[in-house]
Amino acid sequence: MKTLFRFQRPRLVAAAKGLTDFDIVDIKLRDDLPEWFPSINPFRKVPAIEFPDGEAIYESIIISDLLDELYPAKQLHPKDPKEKAKQKLFLERCGETLIPSFYKHGLADKSEETKQELLKNIGNVEQYLTEKKSKYFGGDEAGMLDYMIWPWFERLPTMYTLSADTYPNLTDWFNRMQHEPAVKETLISKENHLKFYHGYKTGQVDYDFI
């Protein structure tokens, strides 16, 4: 039995691949971090996964990729190496632009400037999906890139409502993803996201909400 210290991306991957041989452990960060957890991840962050031999791996994308390789029955990455590399490049781009703009506008500065920065980055995602000409970022079925990006779009309704006129393909994708079994299994409600954000800003974070 492996131990997965909870975070949404690896949980989405585990759910999408039908993996059940995990103990899910919630770790409360900041002041409530258990004394033993730095032995799992010296950077004191989740997610992390510990194997029966005591070896631990951390960082959400690395864990997600590892799970896809360890359990190849249902591959979430594209089989084509070039397409896999292209998706990884786009995900890295999102990590440098889209995701920081979510945090900046959602947790720090709800100004018009940060809103426009966020919308610009969402527009880049819309363009990428439009060029793919497919239902999902991974093709006709949800794949690794879809699950890696989803958590931030799950949080989007707390700060902005996607317009089908402006983001037609992304809106369709968002609606389809809501019906994916893995998304349903790991979904965090808009209300709980808002409660978490409020606690984060006031310094009284309740990680039970996420």
Automatic annotation (TrEMBL):
InterPro entries on file: Glutathione-S-Trfase_C-like, Glutathione-S-Trfase_C_sf, Glutathione_S-Trfase, Glutathione_S-Trfase_N, GST_C, GST_omega, GST_Omega/HSP26, Thioredoxin-like_sf
Catalyzed reactions: RX + glutathione = an S-substituted glutathione + a halide anion + H(+); methylarsonate + 2 glutathione + H(+) = methylarsonous acid + glutathione disulfide + H2O; L-dehydroascorbate + 2 glutathione = glutathione disulfide + L-ascorbate
Entry-linked SUPFAM superfamilies: GST C-terminal domain-like, Thioredoxin-like
EC number per UniProt: 1.20.4.2, 1.8.5.1, 2.5.1.18
Keyword RNA-binding: no
One biological process term in Gene Ontology: glutathione metabolic process
Keywords: Oxidoreductase, Transferase
One Gene Ontology cellular component: cytoplasm
GO-annotated molecular function: glutathione dehydrogenase (ascorbate) activity; glutathione transferase activity; methylarsonate reductase activity
Function: Exhibits glutathione-dependent thiol transferase activity. Has high dehydroascorbate reductase activity and may contribute to the recycling of ascorbic acid. Participates in the biotransformation of inorganic arsenic and reduces monomethylarsonic acid (MMA).
UniProt family annotation: Belongs to the GST superfamily. Omega family.
Name listed for the protein in its UniProt record: Glutathione S-transferase omega
